[in-house]
């Protein structure tokens, strides 16, 4: 059987950068029609050609350019969403510019989320570097620009993401560590993940499964060898089974609590389009632990897993109790058991599984007993 490689696309920062480049060139060169621009992705070291839909001067020394997101063969809600960049150019005396970086001011406009704490625009390091490196090459001495990035549909699309769970509100974030958008949800990606897991299983007895970028980043910060990390996206079940078939000796699940808690109910494909029982799972564990019925009802009505966690923390603070530790400890233990059973069911191998869950503040909420043991061994 021939494996079909799913088509990759580009991440949102690439389209934001492309629109900014087109707007700047419109101002600098007086070009009113730009079909495409080349963007140096930095990560990886390749150049991408990005189509430009529209570009125009809108007032003296200000231009606006529009492109559209193309994430490739991925179930990405930003597909075809317009990405705007408005560039304002002014010329200043040489003494006003102390460093090249100060030539470029990046602003989050409508649809770009901002951090609930602190209020800064959710334009992360890779997006900042991508814009500054590419735009600085176009600027001359004495030129300074303000780049305002706009996602007209960002505020609406953000309601369908977990951004708010990570403290980003009223829009989408320009997040990512690379310019390539890997089709994490496309079926063909599972085969690629299996191949990556097979390679890592030859090197390590214990592998660390991370669903997304936040888990990968936090795991690296804790000192876990990046080569040991396996990005699973939502394919946890099939990859747990594959780990068993490859003879992996132990597995550490490392992820956001709103995702990993699904495993405690036997949900091993965690994409919310297929199954989302977070409030039911958390409420069931609250009731099982003996929490008051009115608190259980409030947990069930919580808008997000993060809101429910905050309710439990407030209840603990007001009553000098430890419900968070008890309930999340029970959930983590069940995640370990159900995951190990999943491996055995599909591979016939008994593989111990530990779990570590973190919250939107990127701080660890709970480590199961095995999770704590594995984490200590590999850090």
Automatic annotation (TrEMBL):
It holds the Pfam family CbiD. InterPro entries: CbiD, CbiD_sf. One of its GO terms (molecular function) is methyltransferase activity. Signal peptide: none annotated. The keyword S-adenosyl-L-methionine applies. It is an enzyme of class 2 (transferase). It catalyses: Co-precorrin-5B + S-adenosyl-L-methionine = Co-precorrin-6A + S-adenosyl-L-homocysteine. The keyword Hydrolase does not apply. Its EC number is 2.1.1.195. GO terms for biological process: methylation. Keywords: Cobalamin biosynthesis, Methyltransferase, S-adenosyl-L-methionine, Transferase. NCBIfam families: cbiD. PANTHER family: COBALT-PRECORRIN-5B C(1)-METHYLTRANSFERASE. Belongs to the CbiD family. This is Cobalt-precorrin-5B C(1)-methyltransferase. It comes from Microcoleus anatoxicus PTRS2.
């Amino acid at each position: 059987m021939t494996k079909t490689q799913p088509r990759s696309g580009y991440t949102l920062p690439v389209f934001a950068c492309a629109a900014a480049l087109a707007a700047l060139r419109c101002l600098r060169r007086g070009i009113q029609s730009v079909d495409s621009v080349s963007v140096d992705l930095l990560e990886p070291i390749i150049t991408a050609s990005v189509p430009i839909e529209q570009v125009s001067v809108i007032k003296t020394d200000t231009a606006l350019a529009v492109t559209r997101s193309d994430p490739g063969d991925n179930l990405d809600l930003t597909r075809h969403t317009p990405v705007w960049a408005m560039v304002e150019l002014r010329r200043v005396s040489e003494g006003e510019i102390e460093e090249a970086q100060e030539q470029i001011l990046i602003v989050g406009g409508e649809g770009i989320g901002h951090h609930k704490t602190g209020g800064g625009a959710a334009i992360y390091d890779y997006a900042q570097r991508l814009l500054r490196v590419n735009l600085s090459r176009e600027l001359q001495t004495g030129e300074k620009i303000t780049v305002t990035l706009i996602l007209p549909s960002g505020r609406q699309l953000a309601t369908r993401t977990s951004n708010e769970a990570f403290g980003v509100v009223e829009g989408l974030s320009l997040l990512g560590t690379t310019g390539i958008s890997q089709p994490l949800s496309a079926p063909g990606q599972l085969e690629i993940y299996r191949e990556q897991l097979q390679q890592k299983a030859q090197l390590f007895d214990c592998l660390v499964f991370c669903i997304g970028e936040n888990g990968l980043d936090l795991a690296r910060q804790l000192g876990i060898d990046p080569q040991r990390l396996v990005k699973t996206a939502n394919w946890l079940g099939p990859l747990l089974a594959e780990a068993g078939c490859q003879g992996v000796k132990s597995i550490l699940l490392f992820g956001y609590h709103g995702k990993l808690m699904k495993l405690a109910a036997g949900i091993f494909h965690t994409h919310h389009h297929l199954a989302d029982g977070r409030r039911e799972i958390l409420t069931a564990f609250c009731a099982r632990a003996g929490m008051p019925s009115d608190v259980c009802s409030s947990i069930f009505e919580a808008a997000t897993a993060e809101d429910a966690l905050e309710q439990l923390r407030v209840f603990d603070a007001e009553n000098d109790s430890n419900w968070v530790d008890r309930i999340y400890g029970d959930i983590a233990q069940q995640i370990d058991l159900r995951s190990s059973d999943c491996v055995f069911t599909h591979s016939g191998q008994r593989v111990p599984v530990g779990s570590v869950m973190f919250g939107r503040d990127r701080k660890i909420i709970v480590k199961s007993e095995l999770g704590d043991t594995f984490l200590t061994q590999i850090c």
